[in-house]
Write a structure and sequence with these properties.
Blueprint: H1 12-22, H2 28-39, H3 49-56, H4 60-69, H5 75-89, H6 93-102, H7 108-127, H8 129-141, E1 145-149, H9 154-165, E2 171-174, H10 181-185, E3 193-198, H11 204-215, E4 219-224, H12 230-233, E5 237-240, H13 253-270, H14 272-287
Parallel strand pairs: 1-2, 1-3, 3-4, 4-5
Domain SIS: 135-272
Pfam families: HTH_6, SIS
Organism: Cupriavidus yeoncheonensis
Length: 297
């Protein structure tokens, strides 16, 4: 719980102004954390709390307490202001693309991309350990699992659907092809669960899917970039992943990794039954000629 009764700052400018105004009265440890937040705002959305703490020369718990001192429930609430500021300053995509073109051919581009992906992947484990278990419990208990992700989120949704369906037949991908979304939403039942995937800017279609799921009495698992994303606000369980990237377009790498980790949890829960189903699926694929035969020569 926040250690003060004051409301948290509403945006990054207000947060930075409060830090500067209160800096002389802060403890030495809080000053170290505040100094890093003020001097390196670009690091907060893409680095884990642990890495920021190391760079600031404080313990991770100090950043949590500083966040609470500022009126937030914890670190994630404070971090969201930096994420929102970065997201707002990086739109539209064309504006970011100009920078990529301007810097084209520079030797640092690959290194920057790899560093961003490492940071995004680090953040998955920072806040999703309990949420992954909760999501796996909801999905494994459902009569049928429906999966929806549109446009840039479709690869994440499709990966989950494809891999999970290898050992569970009652997994359906919501596609909305040829204006068929409403027909697909009619299949939602009160014993089902729906996994919805989206990051900013959030698609209208996925919000319709989430709303239809709630109306049908389904359990909803949201995989998104913010705890206050439209699909997260009414979800039963939320998994967070970062989409930050030095390129012009948000990265889906961490989203793919999150659904792979989720499927791993689901496989472990089903146990021997999942292994039998997986062996059967693999055998059918080979017998159907889906794969090029191995060269035994």
């Amino acid at each position: 719980m926040p250690s003060t009764s004051i409301p948290p700052p509403e945006d990054l400018d207000a947060l930075q102004a409060r830090l500067r105004a209160s800096f002389p009265t802060l403890s030495v440890q809080f000053q170290s954390g505040a100094r890093y937040l003020l001097d390196h705002p670009q690091d907060v959305p893409v680095l884990s709390m642990r890495k920021i703490a190391v760079s600031a020369g404080v313990q991770p718990a100090t950043l949590v307490r500083l966040s609470q001192h500022l009126g937030f429930d914890g670190w994630q609430g404070l971090r969201e202001l930096f994420v929102d500021a970065l997201r707002g300053s990086s739109q539209p995509y064309a504006r970011r693309a100009r920078k990529v073109v301007r810097d084209g051919g520079t030797s640092r581009m690959l290194g920057e991309m790899l560093e961003a992906q490492h940071n995004n992947l680090d953040q998955i484990g920072a806040g999703n350990e309990k949420a992954l278990q909760a999501a796996a419990e909801l999905l494994s208990a459902a009569a049928c699992v429906h999966v929806a992700g549109f446009r840039s989120c479709f690869p994440i949704a499709y990966t989950f659907h494809y891999v999970y369906r290898l050992f569970r037949s009652t997994v359906q991908l919501v596609r909305g092809d040829a204006g068929s979304l409403e027909m697909e939403l009619r299949a939602f039942g009160p014993r089902d669960a729906v996994l919805v995937v989206s990051f900013a800017p959030y698609s209208q279609e996925v919000i319709r899917v989430a709303s239809a799921a709630r109306e049908a009495g389904c359990k909803v698992v949201a995989l998104t970039d913010s705890s206050v994303a439209p699909i997260a606000l009414a979800a039963d369980c939320t998994l967070l992943f970062s989409v930050e990237s030095p390129s012009f377009f948000p990265s889906i790498t961490a989203g793919i990794a999150t659904v792979e980790a989720l499927v791993e949890q689901l496989l472990a829960r089903k146990g021997k039954g999942a292994i039998r189903a997986l062996e059967q699926a693999e055998g059918e694929l080979h017998r159907a000629g889906a794969y090029v035969p191995a060269n035994r020569g």
